[in-house]
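The step that takes the researchers longest sounds almost clerical: writing a folded protein down as plain text. The outcome of that step, for a single protein, is printed below.
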Amino acid sequence: MPQAVAVFENLSLTESCSRYDYGLALAKIERHGECLHVWQELETVDEKFAEQKKTVCLFLAADLYDRFAEKGDYAAIYRDTRLLLNSAGDCLARHQIRSIEDLLECAKYAWIEELWDAEEFETIAGLLEGGSAPMTPTLLALHAKIWV
């Protein structure tokens, strides 16, 4: 299956069928985030495709939780969780989406901790802009350190 992915990576994917096949090849080698990214361009009401997309979303969610538990690359976890939320609105239940939103917040703050240690304050400021989290004393202190 990796050979199939390599073939698709070198093609211009203008047709829906090609995008579907490429996404499926990615899913089969457990590159679920990339699969969803490729499938974002597809517009279809096919029930079988919707079920496949839901399955890929669930596999990606499980992978994200595993990666977070292993204290992995929080920037990648944050990026992939955002992709999942953008892709999964039509295929996951509300309680599943809320759980993934919680993971996104946890990944964001874990990434901020890494960024703080690396003194990447501009990136931190970008992550904190327009945040939906309530302003706690700790978060207020972080804002003060970033923007002062």
User: Anything to note?
Assistant: Helices lie at 2-9, 16-28, 32-39, 47-69, 74-88, 94-117, 121-128, 137-147. Residues 1-43 form one domain.
